[in-house]
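Annex B. Sample input.
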Amino acid sequence: MGEKQAVQRDIFSERLKEKLRTLADQSHLLDRWQSRSVVVSCDGIVSAESPLAAQAGAQALSMGGHAVDAAIAANAVMCVVAPHSNGIGGDLFAMVYEARDFALLGLNASGCAPAGMSIHQLVERGVTEMPLTGIHTVTVPGTVDGWDKLLSRFGRMKFPAVLAAAIHYAEEGFPVTEWSAQKWSVNQALQVDANALRTFLPEGRPPDFGSIFKNLDLASSLRQISSKGRDAFYQGEIARRIVETSERTDGFLTLEDLSEFSSEWVQPISANYLQMDRE
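Annex B, continued. Sample output.
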């Protein structure tokens, strides 16, 4: 540890102790509008939109997992229970604080556009401005490689453990929340593609609040990743099916785009404020 980092650690530690002492002394003065106590824990706390995802993360911690293991377990469940905003076909960004070295690291697991796509080719297809939906908005998915990078560097668990809860909910089903049901009901794009229609609109309509939804295709993909790692997604059957779908819908993704992708560790930008470096 460098001298500068040691000084920052000591400043932070003293300020934290002072803040805790102040809160303890003034706890009787707090405006207690909520009916439950503040959540405290010796083993860490996981927050997520879905309690099922938070539970999966907390279970990872209880099994001795690293914060990164918990984050991936929670993220994987979110990919199942909230497909309107999460998915293994998307991107991942992470900032990880390494307490041992008092260092903050960033991971950019966002994929680039297909190598073979150009403005000229888009114009030839009648695309004159960047669309918000459709195959031409699709970039190389970065999430699974991001999971792999995080597990390889920080994880204490492997894919089978961190993906177990997500696989369970994808295979056995989960109750759809009112928020997800509302998002599902207004997504007209699902009507366009036959695969999307079959997967996300069972019986030809969006699932209702409280109904049990399963995604067996996603469960199969997660099981392949669980057993074969990130290469199952970027070089195996999943990759071939992604490219087949892209070609069928006039897209540009190739097997080379997928197999050559690798997310990047980056140094977060920072500024100094009140004698502390802020990332």
